[in-house]
């Protein structure tokens, strides 16, 4: 059975958008750290993973889990780079299917 490795690649922050739209005190997402890894087995959300981010990336996790391929635009078809939809403090994730 395949498993999916999720790696936190980058945490970003848009201070201009934060200043205009958000309440004071916003900082880059504190839920994740760059380089942090999670493993998905059986399509269950990994323990400690942000619910909001999981909802955003789940369709790509499912695609990889069921053998989907992103070779149309990724160097390796068993990988994809995705992000959560927080426009002020998005987090970028690397997903990789590990067969076996």
What does this structure look like?
The chain is elongated, with a radius of gyration of 15 Å. The chain contains two helices and four strands, in the order βαβαββ. The chain has one domain (3-98). A hairpin with a 7-residue loop joins β3 (79-83) and β4. 22% of the residues lie in helices and 26% in strands. It has 100 residues and is of the alpha+beta class. It starts with a strand and ends with a strand. It has a four-stranded antiparallel β-sheet, covered by helices on one side.
Question: What is the strand and helix layout of this fold?
Answer:
Elements: E1 3-11, H1 15-21, E2 37-40, H2 51-65, E3 79-83, E4 91-98
Antiparallel strand pairs: 1-2, 1-4, 3-4
Mean pLDDT: 95
Radius of gyration: 15 Å
Task: Enumerate the strands of the largest sheet in spatial order, edge to edge or round the barrel.
Answer: 2-1-4-3
**Uncertain runs:** none
Proportion of helical residues: 10-25%
How much of the sequence lies in strands comes to 25-35%
